[in-house]
Design goal:
By secondary structure, the protein is an all-beta fold. The protein contains 1 helix and 38 strands. The protein has a 5-stranded mixed β-sheet, with no helix packed on it. Strands 32-38-37-34-35 form a 5-stranded mixed β-sheet, with no helix packed on it. Strand 27 and strand 28 form a beta hairpin.
Length: 416
Amino acid sequence: MYNQVSINCSQNIPIMTKTNLYLFALLLISFHGKSSNEFAQIDLPRSDLTITDLEMVNAQLWVATNDGIWVLDGNGDDITPFDQSALASTNITCLQHDDQQVWAATKDGQLLAWSDNKWTSHDVPQGTYDYLSHISIYNDELYLGTNNGKVFIGTTGAGFEEKNYAIGTLGEITHIGLTSHRTITVLSTNGVLLDFTQQSTILPIKAENTFLPSNNVISGYMYEDRSYDCTDKGLYIADFSNPGPPSIELVTTLPSNVVRSACVSTHSEWIATDGGLALRENGEWRNFTSSNSNLFEDEVTHVVLNQSNKLWFATASGKIGKQTGALSVRTLNAGYADIQVYPSVFSNELRINVNSSANEPLVLNLYHLDGSLAQRFQVTGATEERLVNVQELPSGVYILRAAGINSSRAIRLVKL
């Protein structure tokens, strides 16, 4: 399988000089050799399971399904199911954990906790709903969401308080977040609600009157003061670093606009979509699909990171995947044209696919690492595929720059 490289050419970017190009090359992520093993597939013992949630607990991956919970060791070699008789219900809707226990909610309305090697059933909040759809934990308190838009905050010992949000405003709760300014973010299948607790202000967010791409928020992730809202029409990132309404970033350059899940660390942002995986590092997005990597299934539903910042994920067909090798796909993001170049480690030929919404001609320059020109060729800027013979080039590291009238981007390639 080829290791595909994507270059997206944005407008109004200054042309690089040879000196700047050389410096740019030195700053690029180092290449560790050709890799076709970015991801590994792990099959659960049963093929009829639907994965409903993933939770990384220490070095173990907990997998919630519609029929029980499965625990994988750090390598995925050992897959252990919980004895179903130990669970009050096996149809699990969500997982969460704190320092003492792992929490699980079930489709028939149970709230369970795993500690001291046993499951304990806890009283659920009083109210009219079918089941708990989400669990978050902040400051030793449980933030519970229900299938019909209710939110409860409290503890199993002291009891729960129902938040006084307008019933009918929200759909099934898919995530609850808490910012450093005590703003509660409530995501649901019928829009978002922001509870500015310090100002005693509640603000509903709907697609009809905001930048929210869709009211159907499938899931969410809170990292520091950023809320990643995964919708069926794109990724909506709300930054609550400052008091008051958040600043907004809309991400529409993912493999699919149906965004299922997100997980974020200091170093990376992983996004699961119906078309594959997306990763942002150092401000640069990279997309991973079955056509440009060894991703075994494009419809990814859940993503989590382990303690080593390595990715684990689940797919729609009930399979588990994990990041194993170097990530060879590179994506420089979106503008008027998309150029895919592969393989990233080449011998005799480079294959170039151009898909452009404009008729701007593109000049593709292949440079030696010292900035000297190795080869030049031109494409029309419309949809085109070219096979370029590079057999005569010496082995080494090269920089491919796609330059047109209004754009310039560069990427690193290796000639064997």
